[in-house]
Structure to design on (284 residues):
């Protein structure tokens, strides 16, 4: 009796991580298992994946619910999203081997398979570049010794590792619950919308507006929610910056409207009242 299942992964190197997990947890039948990539000629493109015929390892039989499956073999196919797309399209078209493909479309098949294989590698390359960039930023954002441009990664690492930011969070956390950041992408949009484009500007604005930030937390967050988000400080420095500029009222309303507020009369009245409160918090 042979059963089967599939494991579809985002990246090519994840396929081999899953392979290692299978080898560590199952008994592999090497004669009936195959690595399609290794079995294909170097000058050919096509369906690539790992196919393992396995049975449960001995440790599974310590649990009663697995004992009835002793000796049963099943197949696990491991592949990436693009490899899975190729397999599904190939299956839908009804061609399971190269010899069955008509001459007029064989070249198109080969070109498409090559593009999917290239896309597989390029997405993994992008993922690896992002991971390397994130690792590099950890040390750079702790103490800002150079100009660092805002993006999703730099803000995420700044909030997590920067000494000035963590000190502020730890100070606030003595008085109110701090909730972990979940909206880094949203905050990066707010900062750029307020004209803040580097982490150095972020840190300067935090140092210059600590009293305003604490007042916003004390009189807005505590009274309404009784907690503060880990990234709320970033929103408050946007307000602080805009409050100090000419035509601050107009710029704040424009900032809110650009970031999801409606422009109704009721909303505008609420916005004006909030601006008056913030001006008061700025002076306290």
């Amino acid at each position: 009796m042979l059963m089967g299942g599939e494991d579809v992964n985002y990246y090519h190197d994840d396929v081999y991580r899953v392979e290692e997990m299978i080898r560590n947890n199952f008994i592999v039948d090497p004669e009936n298992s195959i690595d399609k990539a290794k079995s294909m000629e170097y000058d050919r493109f096509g369906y690539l994946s790992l196919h393992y015929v396995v049975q449960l390892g001995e440790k599974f039989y310590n649990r009663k619910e697995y004992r009835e499956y002793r000796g049963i073999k099943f197949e696990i196919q491991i592949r990436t999203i693009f490899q899975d797309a190729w397999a599904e399209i190939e299956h839908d078209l009804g061609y399971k081997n190269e010899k069955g493909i008509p001459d007029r479309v064989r070249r198109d098949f080969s070109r498409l398979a090559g593009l999917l294989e290239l896309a597989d590698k390029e997405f993994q390359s992008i993922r690896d570049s992002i991971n390397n960039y994130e690792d590099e930023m950890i040390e750079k954002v702790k103490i800002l010794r150079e100009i660092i441009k805002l993006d999703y990664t730099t803000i995420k690492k700044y909030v997590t590792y920067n000494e000035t930011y963590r000190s502020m969070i730890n100070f606030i956390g003595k008085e109110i619950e701090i909730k972990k950041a979940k909206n880094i992408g949203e905050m990066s949009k707010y900062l750029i919308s307020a004209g803040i484009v580097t982490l150095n500007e972020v840190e300067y604005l935090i140092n210059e507006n600590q009293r305003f930030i604490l007042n916003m937390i004390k009189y807005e967050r505590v009274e309404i929610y009784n907690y503060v988000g880990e990234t709320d400080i970033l929103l408050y420095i946007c307000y602080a910056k805009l409050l100090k500029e000419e035509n601050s009222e107009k710029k704040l309303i424009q900032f809110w409207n650009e970031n999801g507020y409606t422009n109704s009369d009721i909303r505008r009245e609420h916005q004006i009242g909030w601006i008056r409160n913030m001006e008061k918090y700025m002076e306290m």
Observations:
- Residues 41-46 have pLDDT under 50 and may be disordered.
- The longest helix spans residues 103-142.
- The longest strand covers residues 2-9.
